[in-house]
Design a protein that fits this description.
The chain is an alpha/beta fold. The chain has 15 helices and 18 strands. The strands form 4 sheets. The protein has an 11-stranded mixed sheet with strand order 3-4-8-10-9-11-12-14-15-16-17, sandwiched between helices. It has a 3-stranded mixed sheet with strand order 1-2-5, with no helix packed on it. A two-stranded parallel ribbon has the order 6-7. Strand 1 and strand 2 form a beta hairpin. The C terminus is likely disordered.
Length: 491
């Protein structure tokens, strides 16, 4: 028995598709907000229109506007492959519920991509395997990207009922979470058992949602994959609304528009087109800002004041994405000796991995000062089998197929060891979604953060708790490096 594939939402009936072994029903392309086009471009998301009859939910909708940039190590399975459109505010649901009264935990995932690319339709994020393995509901969400998702401008601020602009992609996430709260029971989910998660930019967004007053009560657990570290989320120099507005005026000028009305007549393709002559401050694109509405301060400062949405929390990163940014002094090389060929690369790699683990651990240490809920930190160290490119190791985003149990979506020579890691990771994630604790029968124990236990959970074939750094001396040295001031700005 499986859930009836025709489900009543607040806006109308949707018809999903039952998977081959009748364990999961998938609903693709459900609108959670009105198309942000015309005068709704650069506005807070508006409610979706209702429809008559049954809406076909068997195919992904178009992804939000972005370029097509598949590049190593991100093969096509990790990048958007669908058509793009401004009309893109849709979500996808994989439910393993048998009936509408199952009250399953709900995993809502926000993709990465630097706030400029990505999609819920990406193969590696396919939710069927995780929903089936974990007995949960998996949802992923399209949100506005780049200039269409994050442009601030004085005219936009003046016209906003909230006296803010920018952060539209993040407000899309709020709208999606409100949709989930209002509708997920019909799909067999529990609206009071929602876990938000994201990777990279999606993880930064989750850090923003944890800090945002607008997200209060919309989730009960949170996870950040490759996006929370003591240094990375430092209070730093988060872009203010005024700074973002000034960039927005400059952006409009470069597009040949002197008013908001003129800017809205420019095609979406032209809006997202890269300007190779733009100054460095604009070159990175667009992202989360302190707009005074979605965010009233930086996520780190909100954490320090204890005003965050406090829920059980998991964070971590991957071994292949960590780098060392501290001094390379005699003291460093005493602790991290050169290799046999006097090669600094291996020493820097080991220091980078330990520094990355420490950054995530210290983020939980900072969090623990005001949070009453448990935090858990992981270190993902399983290289995707890739005979042509072994050099990439456990690269940025490579944990996604293990979390989602989506091996069948990627053409790789998977091993029994990979299957074991994926099986355990999907179990940890699903347990956390359901109970707020990743632990469960048959799994290596994942201890919650403890300031006296300087360890992290290693997710690999050799799975278990390991020290943050391999000696107290290395720990103290890296701590000193991470405590040095660093200039970080968003975006």
């Amino acid at each position: 028995k499986i859930l009836d594939p025709v489900v009543q939402t607040q806006n109308g009936l949707v018809q999903g598709v039952v998977n081959e072994d009748e364990t999961v029903v998938v609903f693709k392309g459900i609108p959670y907000a009105a198309p942000p086009v015309g005068n709704l471009r650069w506005r807070e998301p508006q409610p979706p229109a209702s429809w008559e009859g049954v809406r076909d939910a068997s195919d992904f909708c178009e992804s939000c506007m972005q370029g097509n940039n598949s590049r190593l190590p991100w093969t096509p399975e990790f990048m958007n492959q669908t058509e793009v459109s401004e009309d893109c505010l849709y979500l996808n649901i994989w439910t393993s519920a048998k009936t509408a009264s199952d009250n399953l935990g709900v995993f809502v995932y926000f993709h990465g991509g630097g706030f400029g690319e990505g999609s819920g339709s990406i193969a590696a994020y396919n939710g069927e395997g995780l929903a089936k393995k974990g007995g949960i509901i998996v949802i992923n969400v399209n949100y506005r990207l780049g200039a269409l998702g994050f442009l601030a401008h004085p005219e936009l601020t003046a016209k906003s009922p909230n006296h803010a602009s920018g952060n539209y992609g993040l407000l899309d996430m709020i709208a999606a979470l409100k949709w989930v709260k209002a509708n997920i029971e019909a799909f067999g989910g529990d609206p009071n058992k929602v876990c938000i998660s994201g990777q990279s930019a999606g993880a930064m967004a989750v850090a923003g949602l944890i800090a945002s007053p607008l997200a209060k009560g919309l989730f009960q657990r949170a996870m950040t994959q490759s996006g929370s570290s003591f240094r990375g989320m430092g209070s730093g120099n988060m872009t203010t609304l005024a700074e973002a507005e000034a960039r927005g005026v400059e952006f409009a000028k470069r597009k040949g528009a002197s008013t908001l009305a003129e800017l809205r007549t420019i095609s979406a393709e032209e809006i997202i087109k890269q300007d190779e002559t733009a100054p460095p401050a604009m070159g990175m694109g667009f992202g989360m800002i302190n707009d005074g509405y979605f965010l009233t301060d930086s996520p780190a400062n909100i954490l320090d004041t204890g005003e965050q949405n406090d829920t059980p929390f998991i964070t971590g990163g991957n071994s292949g994405e960590m780098g060392y940014r501290g001094e390379k002094s005699d003291a460093f090389f005493e602790l991290y000796p050169l290799g046999p060929d006097n090669d600094t690369a291996n020493a820097l790699k080991i220091a980078g991995v330990e520094s990355g683990r420490l950054g995530a651990y210290l983020y939980l240490d900072q969090r623990a000062k005001t949070s009453k809920t448990n935090g858990y930190v992981y270190f993902f160290d399983q290289a995707i089998p890739w005979p042509e490119h072994p050099e990439f190791g456990a690269f940025h985003t490579s944990e996604a197929p293990y979390v989602f149990n989506s091996f069948d979506m990627l053409d790789r020579p998977w091993t029994a060891g990979d299957s074991l890691v994926a099986d355990r990771m999907a179990s940890y994630w699903a347990n956390f979604v359901t109970n707020g604790d990743p632990n469960g029968p048959g799994l290596p124990e994942w201890r919650a953060f403890d300031p006296n236990d300087k360890s992290v959970m290693r997710l690999s074939e050799d799975m278990g708790m390991i020290p943050v750094a391999s000696s107290e001396e290395r720990y103290d040295f890296l701590l000193e490096q991470l405590m040095k001031p660093v200039s970080i700005s968003f975006p």
